[in-house]
């Protein structure tokens, strides 16, 4: 993907306008910094638990993954007690009334576990 600086700035401005990002100012900042407002903000309806945020963020960054991969890769954001907690959190995300936010993919031939992927791209306005 090749984007010009102007194209990136236009998208950042659009995200700020839609309240998904906010600008962060600080003493001595030479460049504009941004902070995400993905969920749990006063401007949005999306409210997620810490476990749900960890899984969704990891899926957004890394793509479809197994519950085991998610537990390992999301551990800096949330410490899951066991695989059952990961799987129950994924099931909650898949069955939310305002969702679904994730989907379980069919198990690939030769693989032990099914993978999950996020469904946020299909939710564009």
What does this 3D model show about the protein?
It contains four helices and four strands, in the order αββαααββ. By secondary structure, it is an alpha+beta fold. It has two domains: 5-36, no CATH class; 50-123, Arc Repressor Mutant, subunit A (Orthogonal Bundle), CATH 1.10.10.10. Strand 1 and strand 2 (33-36) form a beta hairpin.
Secondary structure elements and their pairing?
Layout lengths: L4 H13 L3 E4 L8 E4 L13 H13 L4 H7 L9 H12 L7 E3 L11 E3 L7
Antiparallel strand pairs: 1-2, 3-4
Keywords:
single chain; 125 residues; alpha+beta; Arc Repressor Mutant, subunit A; two-stranded antiparallel ribbon; 4 helices; 4 strands; elongated
Provide a brief overview of the structure.
The protein has 125 residues and is an alpha+beta fold. It has helices at residues 5-17, 50-62, 67-73, 83-94; strands at residues 21-24, 33-36, 102-104, 116-118. Helix 3 (67-73) packs across helix 4.
- What kind of sheet is the major sheet? 2 strands, antiparallel
CATH class of the largest domain: Mainly Alpha
Q: Please bin the fraction of helical residues.
A: 25-40%
End-to-end distance: 22 Å
Determine the CATH topology of the largest domain. Answer: Arc Repressor Mutant, subunit A
Write down how many β-strands occur, each being a DSSP E stretch of 2 or more residues: 4
Number of domains: 2
Beta-strand percent range: 5-15%
Structural class: alpha+beta
Strand order, largest beta sheet? 1-2
Question: What's the architecture of the largest domain in CATH terms?
Answer: Orthogonal Bundle
- SSE succession: HEEHHHEE
| Molecular shape | elongated
What is the CATH homologous superfamily assignment of the largest domain?
Winged helix-like DNA-binding domain superfamily/Winged helix DNA-binding domain
**How large, in whole angstroms, is the Cα Rg?**
17 Å
Low-confidence stretches: none
Mean pLDDT: 88
Number of helices: 4
Organism: Salmonella enterica I
Pfam family, one: DUF480
Protein name: Protein of uncharacterized function YceH
